[in-house]
Structures are given as structure tokens and as C-alpha cells.
Specification:
Elements lengths: L1 H10 L3 H14 L4 H13 L3 H15 L2 H14 L3 H6 L10 H14 L3 H11 L6 H12 L4 H6 L3 H7 L3 H14 L2 H13 L25 H15 L5 H8 L3
Helix pairs in contact: 1-2, 2-3, 3-4, 3-5, 4-5, 4-15, 5-7, 7-8, 7-9, 8-9, 9-11, 9-12, 12-13, 13-14
């Protein structure tokens, strides 16, 4: 029940409640693969990188989870401000992990270092995957870095936008595409939506991020980034599940 409550809270944009409920569920049901992966994901994207990495590592080892392995090899270094580590993994491919998130992580790594050729390499692979909102978003970002605004926006069909609008991770990615295009109203709209949904993970990254560091002093964007930092501080104070805390203390 706590797992369901946690995921419902996350879906509603209440990451604080979601994190608390998933912590309780993770402690109560240690053998559940989906729960372990979701707890790790929410920890990572609320800015608790070490804790999320520990939970993901356990899920990868205990359940041989392809998604958890992907989180460790791509999401963790990306969120620690090491997109170069992610780009170095490109030739290895997604292995047993899901391909769509793999492509998106590489798109985000390319954007973080203004390596637009890397963005295009990842998008080229995404184009061959079955269509879904995540793939459409990757193509939007790929066209954005070429400056093809009309072509980029064509990938954000209303039904795609409707799904992306309700995901705290993807809303920030859409905002990043608009930032590349220099579209201030949509940067504010989508980044604001992401912050409203509880996003905190870009808070420590913006000063080194090739896209976001140019917006640090923007009068409409700076308050949103300040709210990200407030979210991160609040999430950092939420107690970990005792089992997760043990994993972190052991360096696992």
C-alpha cells in the first residue's frame, strides 16, 4: 500500500510525500524489484545521488535489473555533473537496459557539454526505435540543437505534450530544448511546471551545464532555479529507509 501511495504522490507532483512513502515501502518489502528501482529513481531525481546510487546498485545486483544498471552507468554520473563519463559509454550501447532512456541520457549528456554531434548520434539511434513520447522528446531536442525550430516543434504533438507535461523529469528536458532555442516564455512555462512537480536534480548542476548556466541571472528563470534548491534542501532532510542508510554507510 505504501508503494502505491508513494507512486501516486510522485505522479501528482508531491515528491516529498512520495519519497517518504517509498522509504517505508522499501523497508517493508526488501525483495520487490520494481519498488527498489522506483525508490532509487526518486532518490536520484530529488538530488540524493549517493543514496539513489546505493539503492540502484542493490537492485542491479539482487535482481539483475537492466534499468538499475542503466541508472548507475548513465544517470548517476550525469547527475553528478560528469556528462563526459556518460558520453564515454556510448559505444557500449544500452546492454540489457531500456533503449529509449539510454538514448535520452546521451542526448542530455551532449547538451550538458554543448557536444551537439553527440546529441545527433543518440537521436539517430532513437529514430529507429518504436515511437513513444520519450523518443519524440529526444527528436525535439535533436532538432533544437540544429536550430530547426519548426521541425523540432513538430515532434511535440498535443498528445506527446500532454504526457510530458505530467512528468517531473521530462518537463525539465523539454524546458532545456526551449532554452537551446532561446524561447523564453516556453522555458519559463516548462521549467516552472517541472519545479511545480517537485524537480530538484538540476539544482547543483546549473553552473557547469552548457545550457542552463546561461540562464542563471535571467529574471524569470533564476527564481525557478532557487525553488529547485529549496526542494533539494527539503528532500535532503527526509530520513532514508534504514536498510538504504546501511547500504550508503557501507559504500555499497
Amino acid at each position: 500500500m505504501q508503494e502505491i501511495r508513494g507512486l501516486v504522490a510522485v505522479a501528482r507532483g508531491d515528491l516529498e510525500t512520495g519519497l517518504r512513502n517509498l522509504s517505508v515501502a522499501y523497508e517493508a518489502i526488501p525483495g520487490d524489484e520494481d519498488l527498489s528501482v522506483w525508490y532509487g529513481i526518486v532518490l536520484l531525481f530529488t538530488g540524493r545521488i549517493d543514496e539513489g546510487a546505493a539503492v540502484a546498485r542493490e537492485a542491479a545486483q539482487r535482481h539483475e535489473s537492466g534499468l538499475a544498471t542503466l541508472m548507475l552507468s548513465l544517470a548517476v554520473p550525469l547527475l553528478r555533473g560528469r556528462p563526459d563519463v556518460v558520453r564515454a559509454e556510448f559505444a557500449i550501447g544500452p546492454r540489457s537496459g531500456p533503449q529509449a532512456p539510454w538514448c535520452l541520457f546521451h542526448v542530455m549528456a551532449g547538451l550538458a557539454e554543448a557536444d551537439h554531434a553527440h546529441v545527433q548520434r543518440a537521436v539517430a539511434i532513437a529514430r529507429d526505435l518504436p515511437p513513444e513520447p520519450l523518443i519524440a522528446m529526444g527528436q525535439f531536442l535533436g532538432e533544437a540543437v540544429t536550430g530547426e525550430r519548426a521541425t523540432a516543434l513538430a515532434h511535440l504533438a498535443p498528445e506527446v505534450e500532454a504526457i510530458l507535461w505530467n512528468d517531473f523529469q521530462y518537463t525539465e528536458c523539454v524546458a532545456e530544448g526551449y532554452a537551446v532555442l532561446g524561447d523564453v516564455p516556453n522555458v519559463v512555462r516548462w521549467l516552472g511546471r517541472s519545479v511545480d512537480l517537485g524537480m530538484a536534480y538540476i539544482a547543483p548542476l546549473v553552473e557547469s551545464h552548457a545550457v542552463w548556466r546561461g540562464w542563471l541571472a535571467h529574471p524569470d528563470v533564476a527564481p525557478l532555479l532557487a525553488r529547485c534548491r529549496e526542494h533539494a534542501e527539503r528532500y535532503a532532510a527526509i530520513p532514508l529507509a534504514p536498510r538504504a542508510a546501511t547500504l550508503v554507510s557501507r559504500g555499497e
